[in-house]
Specification:
By secondary structure, this protein is α+β, with helices and mostly antiparallel strands. Helix content is 44%, strand content 15%. The chain has helices spanning 19-29, 37-62, 66-107, 206-210, 220-226, 229-238, 264-285, 301-304, 312-335, and strands at 110-113, 132-140, 148-155, 164-170, 178-182, 200-201, 211-214, 242-247, 250-255.
């Protein structure tokens, strides 16, 4: 595969954005009026007018000196104007960013949707899907490239502080459940603690120093068939901050930070990740057959999911109620004279 930007048209990310393009984009996506740039600007104008009227009415009550009154009034209006201008500028930047990404997406056979929407969530990500929002969704529509969906995801509450990126690519065949944990990736939780250590497949070189690969017992040869030296090399080059998972016929890549679609470098990096690394994994799994399975195209039960470690929380969740039941039973038995 050539350099990430050599097969993409990224000119739309740097060209100026006009008001007409923003309005056209809002109409096409049916953006709620509360989120449209001109509504934000109009709201700020109304706010400034109300602020000026309020200051003109209140300041004379508390400030009797005419010169000081003018100074206070001017200072309040100046600060309000600066804040309003900053808000308006940020609203315009957000609107123009969407237009730029849409232009780059159309030029490269992709679809972009910045609004919260549903994306296929499988594997470890699906376990936390109850409060997950997906925004900045990028989908492949070019039949010459692997079909993929990429998005920024995060919990519905305070998601700005905990957003991350996800890329889901559908494979031609189902594979054993394999998780590649990036030991250097950002995140609050160490995924290695979720899986039993005897399922880790030790590999050689830089890959094993950066990633920990887990596969079900008995599927080590299958994992080596998928993760060939060239696949591992591309993971180190393109997914050095990502976790990877093969599950239920999908390749899922997750990052601890959102994808940077608004810059040529970030846009090209994401598409290259999907086309190059995703294409290689899809090619390696396209003819896979699990000889242990009862039906073609399926995976035998031992290979469908990795075995989990028993967490301390699970032990406490079972032990504490059990201890209470035993203690209560002993108290009742003692009260009835059944035990000394």
């Amino acid at each position: 595969m050539t350099d990430s930007g050599s097969f993409l048209d990224l000119s739309g990310l740097s060209a100026p954005v006009t008001l007409r393009e923003v309005r056209r984009s809002d109409r096409r996506r049916r953006t709620p009026y509360s989120r449209r740039w001109w509504v934000v600007a109009a709201g700020l104008a109304v706010y400034l007018a109300a602020q000026a009227a309020f200051v003109a009415a209140i300041v004379p009550i508390g400030v009797t000196d005419p010169e000081l009154r003018g100074t206070v009034t001017g200072a309040v209006l100046m600060v309000s104007g600066v804040l309003a201008a900053a808000w308006a500028l940020q609203a315009w930047r957000n609107a123009s960013r969407v237009v730029r990404i849409e232009r780059a997406a159309r030029a490269n056979g992709l679809e972009f949707d910045p609004m919260p929407t549903a994306v296929p969530l499988v594997g470890m990500v699906a376990e936390q899907a109850a409060n997950t929002l997906a925004t900045d969704v990028l989908r492949s529509t070019d039949p010459r490239r692997p079909a993929f969906t990429a998005a920024t995801i995060g919990p519905g509450i305070a998601r700005a502080a905990r957003q991350g990126g996800i890329l889901v690519l559908e494979l031609d065949r189902r594979t054993p459940h394999i998780v590649v944990v990036n030991r250097r990736a950002r995140g609050r939780h160490d995924l290695r603690a979720r899986f039993r250590g005897d399922q880790r497949l030790r590999l050689e070189g830089n890959f094993d120093r950066t990633f920990s690969l887990y596969c079900p017992a008995g599927y080590e040869t299958d994992a080596l068939y998928f993760f060939t030296p060239d696949v591992m090399a591309r993971m180190l080059d393109l997914a050095s901050d990502c976790h990877a998972e093969l599950v239920d016929g999908f390749l899922v890549l997750t990052s601890g930070r959102p994808w940077s679609l608004g810059t040529p470098r970030g846009f090209a990096a994401l598409v290259t990740l999907a086309v190059d690394l995703g294409g290689r994994v899809r090619s390696q799994t396209s003819r896979y057959v699990d000889d242990r399975a009862d039906a073609p195209g399926e995976v035998a039960a031992p290979g469908r999911r990795l075995r989990r470690r028993v967490s301390l929380g699970a032990v406490l969740a079972a032990a504490v109620p059990a201890a209470c039941v035993v203690a209560g039973g002993l108290q009742i038995a003692a009260g009835l004279g059944l035990v000394p």
